[in-house]
Amino acid sequence: VQLQASGGGLVQAGGSLRLSCAASGTTFSRDALAWHRQAPGKQREFVAFISAGSSTNYAESAKGRFTISRDNAKNTVDLQMNSLKPEDTAVYYCVLIHLGRDYWGQGTQVTVSS
Question: How does pLDDT run across 7-18, given as a tens digit for each residue?
């Protein structure tokens, strides 16, 4: 399984970014997916989850601002992030859950300036 994340960058507070993660080497439509993040000096934390059936779950910090979605035809999972805050600054990782095992992408940096 390989995961390639993209879409990170520098944005001002209140702005938006859309992260995308492309997966290969798996039966994507049957897998659950998630986004996690790790801010400098902090532990990695959960951001959003989408099941194989497209049910979603969000961290409290992401609710109402972030939207996770998947495209099974393209084997991609996206994270639309709106109303970004400086505290959203982190490296964002996509995670694919396949047969009970987690596979992590390499991460993409998101920096939100105040």
Answer: 999 999 999 999
